[in-house]
Amino acid sequence: MQASQGVKNGDMAASQGSDQSQGERLAQRDLAKGSKSFALAGKLLPHRVREDAAVCYAFCRLVDDAVDEVPAAEAPAAVARLHALVAALYEGRPQEDPRLRAFAALVARTRLPKHYVLELVEGMGMDARGVKYETLDELRLYCHRVAGVVGLMMCHVLGVRDDRALKNAAHLGIAMQLTNICRDVAEDWTRGRLYLPADLTAHVTGPAQAGTSLPQAMGPALAPAVRTLLAEAEQLYRSGQKGLWALSARTALAIRVAAWVYRDIGRRLARRGFDVTRGRVVVPLRRKLWLACRAALSALAEVPSRLPVSPFSAPLTPIKAPTRIARYPDDILPAD
Q: What span, in angstroms and rounded, lies between the C-alpha atoms of 41 and 43?
């Protein structure tokens, strides 16, 4: 009987392991398809962390697509389904999608706070309600919900030495979202959306309406607003970089590569005079590899400060999951 029970337990463990691997494979596929920049940076992570990061990305992608890929009239119902999904995940109820089963396992293993996931869903809710942003402060809240909390979730996936780095992680996520918004102004416009705050675009007049192609004539008029958002992003990238000390050296390198590639999107937009009508900005692979090499050199320069007994810094504390939850705005604003 004991031998038979042992075989059954072994079969069950093998089945759970196979199921986890299937979810991770699908997540890796989603990451490779959805973001070449994150996929490139992910290759620098240790294997286990790389798998977890992909599972986290796939879940966030699933949440985003659940709202983006339905007609506008159905978006509120999609958000309600997401709230029900989050409740089910945190109550341990079974899931059909292997990616969701992998994410549920990740939540349990890394103690990923439900608060962050609910904030992410609320960010999707802002899209579903067609919220228009009057000020940069209002846009910051949206960016935190759809991207800042992803940075905070990644702190649980990657592990940090100190909870003080949570703020920097959120800043990096917000910076990337601001960059996305600036890059995608023309694309969002054709979908009937404009994320640039109204108080930065009040001077823009013309016959064009969101939902049509963005006329080239509007490029110069929108440029000051794009410049303002990218300046905000630049400040947040600098803050994000200050938090890399809290990650392991290898993980910090991967995050630095992702940040520098995203930052380069903004710098390329700047070289176009912040004109968003001149086509979608893309960072070529050769440039990404160059940025990765520069990031590696920066990592090498930091080696003395990361030695176990270093004359350049206090001894490093172990990498661990964060112990507290960072809440917006008190724990996130202002930027350093």
A: 5
